[in-house]
Amino acid sequence: SINGDRLWESLMEMAKIGATPKGGVCRLALTDLDKQGRNLFVDWCRAAGCTISVDKMGNIFARRPGRNNDLPPVITGSHLDSQPTGGRFDGVYGVLAGLEVVRSLNDLGYETEHPVEVAVWTNEEGSRFAPAMVASGVFAGVFDLDYGLSRADTEGKTMGQELARIGYAGEAPVGGRPVHAYFEAHIEQGPILEAEGKTIGVVTDAQGQRWYELTITGVESHAGPTPMTRRKDALLGAARIVDLVNKVGLANAPRACATVGMMQVYPNSRNVIPGRVFMTIDFRHPEDAVLAGMDQAMREGVARICGEIGLDVQIEQIFYYKPVHFDDDCIEAVRKGVAEHGFAARDMVSGAGHDACYLARVAPTAMIFIPCIDGISHNEIEDATPEWVAAGGQVLLRAILEKAGQ
Amino acid sequence: SINGDRLWESLMEMAKIGATPKGGVCRLALTDLDKQGRNLFVDWCRAAGCTISVDKMGNIFARRPGRNNDLPPVITGSHLDSQPTGGRFDGVYGVLAGLEVVRSLNDLGYETEHPVEVAVWTNEEGSRFAPAMVASGVFAGVFDLDYGLSRADTEGKTMGQELARIGYAGEAPVGGRPVHAYFEAHIEQGPILEAEGKTIGVVTDAQGQRWYELTITGVESHAGPTPMTRRKDALLGAARIVDLVNKVGLANAPRACATVGMMQVYPNSRNVIPGRVFMTIDFRHPEDAVLAGMDQAMREGVARICGEIGLDVQIEQIFYYKPVHFDDDCIEAVRKGVAEHGFAARDMVSGAGHDACYLARVAPTAMIFIPCIDGISHNEIEDATPEWVAAGGQVLLRAILEKAGQ
Ligand SMILES: NC(=O)NCCC(=O)O
Ligand SMILES: NC(=O)NCCC(=O)O
């Protein structure tokens, strides 16, 4: 059994790094604050007797040896980076729940057959650097290393540069080694578990995602003397595309999600008809065929809208992965942990992407969800109860023991 | 007669300060580049024998004495600041046409009865600091000095601070002195003159304007696990408001203009449903009653849109002036200049706001427009021909002589 109080205290300690006025966290990937968070994690892991390795994507692995260190490790973990207005649990919970498992195994003097590693994956959020989960993607062979290191933020700084700057450009090769199993604990980030009074979500699947970047080009011109009918207003086009995206989401509800999260207007001056807009689209659905239909509806709608106004448009799909089904054996290991403690649980499909979605390509994988208050995440007010936090840790411990060999 | 070549050369020389790759100018108000432009203007005016005074809003007045210096001056001028992606003529043309009138009077050894002053008004564009024409507004008693000096850019820097920083926080009181007449030459910034093959626009009126700032607040949340029907997406509301603003403009076309030029999305992250949007609206019409109707239609539409999505909204009208009718006597002076040279001309209503709109409250005022290519302004490709530029200068000289006393 894990120590729920210690896990909670560690979460609250880590939440001080990048704490925001509204009780959240801003710890964007590869900033000085991310470095501070990583250093604290590394210190804690060393104190718990782990050896640390960092790979070329800055992924950190804290290893607790097993009885047979020639066997591939059971890995658990998640990410320490946050959204600009993120919460205290998203990602960091999975990392510190993994650390708590290690600490508990130490307390119990328990040796596993396989080594156990706690992983911190770089830039999971995809907020500072798009796309999401890029470093676990390199680990899983989905992206190559050059692609990963060359992802740039809006100022043009690359992940490679920023990893070097904060001292986390490691030496270890990225991936390419056997992983016996991967487990990731996470908050649900949606409303279902709390609404149904369940403590644990047994995550069997994750929905597919497609992310796009659109650049819409019109003619910038003076807001005063330019007649309405002579305008090529890029923001008018972008606005209609926001509405279109929403309609595409609703047409495929309740399971589809469709979001425009980012928009940049040029020159963004009050009395200038905007000449250019950069915007993003995020589509999700548990069925790949529906996702393809949403893609088509979006492309047709965008072409129509831009044609009507006389705008040029470039659409680039920058991120795509099909719905993921996790490993039945690992799911079974999670179920056993739930049963042992008698937690109220249900099967779920993850609405968010997680490093587990890429790990699933190279290792038997499953995830454990706990509820979050009002289903709110990617928001400073994101919250969870100490009971939920502890429950997820208990299930994680059992699942890891199941695969790591008792 | 003025020297059109010299005027053109001065324009091209000034256009080097803040020159952009696409042939335009970025010389935002009270930046280092604005300072350079001001310094060059002051040097040129001193070389032309003018005395310089700078008032507390940073407005510059270059004075050529008259025969009777107790008489109030005839002032001409415009602004040196530009949009972020502005052109080589907007504003600077009126300033340098005024300087060319002074230089030509010197060449001719011509003494006027009234002194003649060339004015540079601070922050006409309203791009870095909103609203537009704020310093000529203080001069005309529309705004008080504290209001003017406390206007802040998006980083919170005030006009007062930035005037001091660039060395243009002058000593002279702002306005409160008699002005015998005010003339402003400007590019049309719209398509009418060029389309009709006219060289000069005799500006009899300027349309009224209302500017608004809207802050729309929803709930930021995760783009993946948050069902479409549970969202309070601030950007969806903002997008529908952009479409509404366009509809309000079209409903009052051909004379109305309605523009959303600026939009800032928070937290502006690809996989976060936006929780807050800041946006601006710019409404214009030559009739105040129509402008009031547009205001009402906008407010009703915004309330409906935000109500439907469950968003909070704050609307602040930050700028409002009624349509302006210029002084019939000054208009007559412009007509005489046109007639003398036989330029093809027509009467016009200005679609843009100009410092002349505020000067008209404290002095007999009129404006002279020249065409611009394709009617495009507030764009780096803004352009005009040397012939148009010279023609406007000729008319300005005649109008000034008419009022300053030959
Ligand atoms: N868990 C999480 O917030 N992941 C970020 C990637 C996504 O948007 O799904
Ligand atoms: N002339 C000009 O561009 N003025 C800026 C104020 C306005 O937008 O009308």
TrEMBL record, chains A, B:
A Pfam cross-reference name: Peptidase_M20
Sites where the protein binds Zn(2+) 1: 79, 90, 186
Superkingdom as given in the UniProt entry: Bacteria
GO molecular function, one term: hydrolase activity, acting on carbon-nitrogen (but not peptide) bonds, in linear amidines
Keyword terms: Hydrolase, Metal-binding, Zinc
CDD domains: M20_bAS
Cofactor: Zn(2+)
Span of the signal peptide: none
Residues annotated for Zn(2+) 2 binding in this entry: 90, 125, 378
Note on cofactor: Binds 2 Zn(2+) ions per subunit.
Homology family: Belongs to the peptidase M20 family.
Name of this protein: Zn-dependent hydrolase
Gene source species: Oleomonas cavernae
Lineage of source species: Bacteria, Pseudomonadati, Pseudomonadota, Alphaproteobacteria, Acetobacterales
